[in-house]
Amino acid sequence: MTNLRFSRRITYIFSALLFSYFIFSCNNSNCNNNKGVKGEKKNNSITSVKDTINEKVIQSATDTSSYVNYYNDIARYIAGLPLNKSSKLYSLTLNKEWINYQKQSDSLWMKIGDKRLNKIHIWTNKEMKDVVEGTKTLFYPFGGPDFLFSNIFFPNAEKYVLIGLENVGVVPDVRGFEKNSLGYYLGDISKSIKDITQSSFFITNNMIKDLNKPDVRGTLPIIMLFVARTGNQILDIKSFEINSQGNIEYLKNHKSGKSGRYGKGVEITFRKANTNQKRYIYYFPVDLSNKGLTNNPNSRMFIEKLDSGMTTYVKSASYLMHSSTFSEIRHIILSKSKYMLQDDSGIPYKFFDQKVWDLKLYGNYIKPIKPFNWCNQEDLRNAFKTKANPLPFNIGYGKISNQFLLRKKG
């Protein structure tokens, strides 16, 4: 019955779009370099203050009519999903460019489901059901706008904290596009997610170029698309900045531009289809190197105030935490996480004390791809020779995949 429901969900989720993902370790593509950015000037347009997200109480959505809203319609539109005839955007779905876009998207998302996502669902149900059910807060450093894989692996999380380097951007005004520019926009959206849907990660250089075009500005449109594609409904979107206490302060308007972007983010409130429980996505850009965290103390405090017992997910992270220049975020993750799922590009194997962690290895390990081959781990290679379990899907860098599944003891 579970597989049948998921099959229906995948049919719904993956009925539209052509794209991909990223090496959006969202920092550097090399293990040594990362530049800190100085803190930004405080914005005056604060409308409300919310204590750190750990205090947020999940509420039931009673007035469901208010959730059939413009944000959700935009997300469905750029995801290539059908809209209700009452939608203000419905007439745009009669556009020939959008109809072609939808057909191409439907075909590609069905292939993505068959190639990787269905297999991930079966695997998580078998190997880490307790982790999936026990995850309330998911921390995804170096993940950028990858809500897609964070939600596929951890569909029950109540809070998703995604961090990258790219600017948040703005909610796209698809009604403001002229007929010709709408076709270009849909093409740019498709190109922006091409890497992740094909390779399971964003490629940093492509991401920088794709998310700084006049129409597709920032990560927000991509996150919105993934929320719609994973069968969820957007209820609200709010801009925020992180204050000196490490709490979020809501802003009046969605901000764009690169200047002072660190520590300024977006909160997306959403729910699963046919449910009332509110869930939250927090995305904000910040440099997670030691220098970057020193230069952005507000963001550091926010991360340090995330609830103990969180789950950390790391994928295609450019081996940044292999470097001593990322030792502080590595320490925060190891001290605060109850569960972890990562590949070999995350925290090196030698840092997992087996007195503290119950660790299971899946897949296989070979020398990292260029330019990361200096991050080779002989101890990990030996561990895979004796301890590895099968991994039925490919994910991350290269043709050989691996996953570390960790549960903290005690």
Describe the structure.
With 410 residues, the protein is of the alpha/beta class. The chain has one domain. The chain contains 13 helices and eleven strands. It has helices spanning 2-13, 70-78, 96-127, 129-134, 147-153, 179-192, 194-199, 204-210, 220-229, 290-295, 297-304, 327-336, 378-387; strands spanning 46-50, 137-140, 159-164, 232-242, 248-251, 264-272, 279-285, 310-314, 337-342, 357-363, 402-408. It has an eleven-stranded mixed β-sheet, with helices on both faces. It starts with a helix and ends with a strand.
Element-level helix/strand string = HEHHHEHEHHHHEEEEHHEHEEHE
- As a percent range, the share of helical residues equals 25-40%
Mean pLDDT: 79
Q: How far is the first residue's CA from the last residue's CA? A: 34 Å
Strand order in the sheet with the most strands: 1-5-4-6-7-3-2-8-9-11-10
Top keywords for this entry?
410 residues, alpha/beta, 13 helices
Question: What is the strand and helix layout of this fold?
Answer:
Layout: H1 2-13, E1 46-50, H2 70-78, H3 96-127, H4 129-134, E2 137-140, H5 147-153, E3 159-164, H6 179-192, H7 194-199, H8 204-210, H9 220-229, E4 232-242, E5 248-251, E6 264-272, E7 279-285, H10 290-295, H11 297-304, E8 310-314, H12 327-336, E9 337-342, E10 357-363, H13 378-387, E11 402-408
Parallel strand pairs: 2-3, 2-8, 3-7, 8-9
Antiparallel strand pairs: 1-5, 4-5, 4-6, 6-7, 9-11, 10-11
